[in-house]
Amino acid sequence: MNNFKYKNPTKILFGKGQMENLAEEIPEKAKVLLLYGGGSIKKNGIYDQVKRATQEFDVIEFGGIPANPEYEILLRALEVIRTEKITFMLAVGGGSVLDGAKFLSAAALYHGDTPWDLLTQKTPTTKGLPFGTVLTLPATGSEMNSGAVITREETKEKLAMGGPGLFPVFSVLDPQVIVSLPQRQLANGIADAFNHVLEQYITYPVGASLQDRMAESVLQTLIEVAPAIMKDPTNYTAASNFMWSCTMALNGILPVGVPTDWAVHAIGHELTALYGIDHARTLAVIAPSHYRYNLASKKEKLAQYAERVWNITDGTLEERAKLGIEHTEQFFHELGIKTKLSEYTKEFQGTAQVLSKRFTDRGWLGLGEHRSLSPSDVGKIVEMAY
Ligand code: NZQ
Ligand code: ZN
Q1: Which residues are paired to 13 by β-bridges?
Q2: Domain assignment of residue 48, given as a range
Q3: What is the pTM for the complete model shown?
């Protein structure tokens, strides 16, 4: 097991009715900017609950943050923060709204000329404008981590940012919010969280027994609750296990002391930027090819995954590893998620070359847990996923 430092300052308010405790978490006399997305919160009652809970505060609203939060729209919110002298933000939504809040948190205190540099220069943000969140879509883990992914339509880019100053102060996690989620978003949430675990687990063994078993338990829990959630999101027991699994998948606990990969996400973000494919679906497209392409370096962990998560005990190590990948693909299919790029866009030809070039131009020359995947390897993985 490798050395690590671990700190997570986000306070979690988990369970039914936690919205009622929201006001206690917001600093007294705060001037609050309420951030939300395309309007789902106005249809499902979450907006009304938040308004009730925050009635003692001076609250200004900024809605319309789209899925894959768009830089240009966020710049408008930044203007509001400045002109209204906002002191606290409350992000109500899924990963997109929460990530938008993180960008704004960093941009509000940023002294450079153009806030896009926060994305391109990768300087970690150590201090941001404080914000809390009310999560409406379990998936990304953004509610308890300090990362964000921002899209720029103009240049078809989607880049990540983060830093220790970008943890939410608190996050309200009421699993009942999932009842209004469409099937597509439920499936996305399960697949995204599942891939988060894989990125931190399907690497190579370092003798981190507890980390491995924690990763496996999150995977097993997701597999167990997936059919129940998809059939009936009002099943509170399943919903609560689903929501907490998604948070645990990406709150910084699983990667301590172990190598991590993240190549699937790096490649997946490009597919969203180019073709607008839902984030989780890009992962389901890339992950199987990525694991097949890197079978030699990942086979020990793949075989362990196959054995402990999918109960595959027969065959050689390599056969078990391959079956683990097949079961993963099958799991995505059972969620109604397609796993080939050509099933999402007719323009798939040439994607491998575009990505290879983009990664070369950006100097992303070594991806994966060994930092050994070159832009040409990336191209081959993408081609395998056509
Ligand atoms: O915009 P509204 O109207 O609210 O509708 C949203 C949106 O259309 C809807 N929705 C959310 N909660 C709902 C609901 N509809 C009905 N009932 C509810 N309770 O769902 C749609 C998708 O929302 P979005 O926030 O985009 O989804 P998700 O949570 O999957 O977030 C995806 C974004 O997060 C980034 C992704 O790249 C993508 O941009 N990620 C962020 C990460 C992080 N910060 O750690 C890690 C992830 O790997 C990921 O990259
Ligand atoms: Zn993800």
Answers
A1: 172
A2: 11-176
A3: 0.98
